[in-house]
Amino acid sequence: MGNHRWGADQNIQFINEYQRHECLWDPKHPQYKNKLAREAAYKTMMQATEMESMVDVVSKIRILRNTYNNEILKAKKSMEMADKLYVSKIPWLNHLDFIKNIESDRTENSATDNTLQTSTAESKIKKCTIRPKPASAPTPKNKRKLGDPLIRDDGVLEKVSTPKANARSNDEFDLFGQTIAEQLRQLPLGIALETEEMLLATVRKQRMRVADDEARRRNKVQEEIVCKDEIEDDKEDWET
């Protein structure tokens, strides 16, 4: 499969291949954190789906999982808001149900940093001399440990915010987004993709929290109205 827009059958084929390799999506699998096993699984998927690189495989997995989580969130929100139940029209969606019970706030790959460094080096073969071991590539100066929190870089913040400091259309969230984007660009591609997934998972979790709070507030108001009506009815019966 090339990089053209995929149809439903191609996505289903890819998902079925992904499901076969449990070490890529099941944190309880004994080889979930095994770099060699995961790399072999990505390579097998790349060959089975005729993709150009392992980076493309990882990117496709991330896109499909994000789409799946967003559709599940829409359905849950429609139920909590007592609206018409949202039913996704995406034909391949139910094929990804095997990840439904995986914690929504976990990143798709907690052990992919080393694997993706190999994949990133592979994706750069067209631009540089082929090396026998991608892992031997010089470590970028800006690389940091995955577990470290995002560090505010005042230099980057100033660089991003200064040109638009007087633009009234931009608020603090626009500047924050630009700052995060600038820092992600300084990371190796694999780490950047994983960090992006972590951020998206956090945002989804907060959206679900807000939806739950709104649903509880509406239910409480409705209960108070019903209770008030019952009291009024009882009062009228007593007076008569």
Automatic annotation (TrEMBL):
SMART domains: MADF
InterPro entries from the UniProt entry: MADF-dom (IPR006578)
Span of domain MADF: 13-104
Chain positions covered by the region annotation Disordered: 107-152
Ranges of biased composition (kind: Polar residues): 109-122
Protein name stated in the entry: MADF domain-containing protein
Source organism: Loxostege sticticalis (Beet webworm moth)
